[in-house]
Amino acid sequence: MSDVETSGTDAGSSPSPTRRNLLRGAAGAAGLAAVSGGLLTACSSSDSSDDSSKSGDSGKSVAGSTVTFGSNYSDPAAKAAFAALTAGATASSQVKVKINTVDHNTFQQNITSYLQGTPDDLFTWFAGYRMQYFAAQGLAQPIDDVWEKIGGNFGDSAKQLSTGLDGKKYLVPLYNYPWVVFYNKSEFAKRGYSVPTTWDEYVALAKKMKTDGLVPIAFGDKDGWPALGTFDILNMRINGYDYHIKLMKHEIPWTDAGVTTVFQHWAELMPYVQSGANGRIWQDAVKTLETKQAGMAFQGTNQVAAQYVTDKADLADLDFFTFPTVNPKWGQDYMDAPTDGFMLSKKAKNPEAAKAILEYIGTGPAEAAYLKTDQWDVGLANGLQVPTYNAIQKKSVEVIGKCKSVAQFMDRDSDPAMANAMISIIQKFIDDPSTGNIAKLQKSAEAQAKSIYTS
Description:
- There is one protein chain.
- The protein has 455 residues and is of the alpha/beta class.
- Helix 5 packs parallel to helix 14 (351-361).
- It has helices at residues 76-93, 104-109, 111-116, 129-136, 144-150, 156-161, 185-191, 199-211, 226-239, 241-248, 257-269, 282-290, 304-310, 351-361, 364-370, 391-402, 410-413, 416-431, 435-454; strands spanning 4-6, 66-71, 96-102, 122-126, 172-176, 179-184, 215-218, 294-300, 318-321, 334-336, 339-344, 378-379, 405-407.
- The strands form three sheets. Strands 1-3-2-4-11-5-12 form a seven-stranded mixed sheet, with helices on both faces. It has a four-stranded mixed sheet with strand order 7-8-6-9. A two-stranded parallel sheet has the order 10-13.
- It folds into two domains: 4-175 and 340-383, D-Maltodextrin-Binding Protein, domain 2, CATH 3.40.190.10; 179-336 and 408-454, D-Maltodextrin-Binding Protein, domain 2 (3-Layer(aba) Sandwich).
- It is globular.
- Helices cover 42% and strands 13% of the residues.
């Protein structure tokens, strides 16, 4: 299979999952080292070169010019939604959009070399630290002029997530999605299960499912990143949001007793987690939930609900609950709700036309149009009216809205190199969750954190 697919606005199929992966090749304190030289540079289509003379002059009309858009929306369902979004952008701005789609993992693994080479004008990316990193590296252009026009469409949290360390705006957000515990309503009804709200109830339900012959918690961590979400939620449930963010910044050591408590709770849950997780991709884990071999799965709607749609599974039977309370002090106040959006390359050939596209994307009607096809994410624009929202999306808005704070996921809230280190450490924990191994892994995490955050 080709690593790079030039798709235009074609919404054809692709075998890749709809989920950003961690930059697994990144290493060292600097973070995002190139995994392989220039693999994504082929994303920049020659079709855009004849429009380069129109860029850089805000006084010129951009109508009729072409913008190239590097996209990691490679899953069939997400790809179709993105095609609809860009078609709407063209209708609004009269700027043509050439989409260059790359499978999700390849896009993330090669993002640095891509941006340093000959990138597309616009590219799909993530809010928060991930956006700030590339902005600080000078690989993205500030878009404050775009935000002067769209700023009223977003709340303070979306604005903060789109702001670089220099105080300038670098991203136009599109959607977010919650990490929650999924289950099939029919299976719970058939077996008389109740939704747990506390840790003890959650563990008791997992025990009952195992007795009933189900896999209590479907789980696949071959790609490394899914387990980061479990660490995040346990840390926020046990130690709170502020503690979690400080740990991500290494303002709290990884040998701290609070981290030990996180792993101890996780170890308590491990007898009920699908075995062999390190050799299983998350898509296969979700299929065990789809086929009712498993009772629950903790992951993002951006993965689980999207795969139900792609697999033509019964989406109406899918439901979720927020991860139960562990420490009553924090209740269910926090969760991971990652935000995705779009950035302007520093080397964009047609920046003014690209900004016209971003101005359209940063509106309620644009988000609503995208969400006619997307049946798993939720929009961020103020007062967004989306009559096409299904039960999963309506509930997502509700549970995110109840949170006092939301995290962006470990691979977005921490240094990329540290997130990579934790992938390996957590996979070793999954293989051996013993007390002795937990202590060793915490020491390893702290040693790597000291190297990463002090060099």
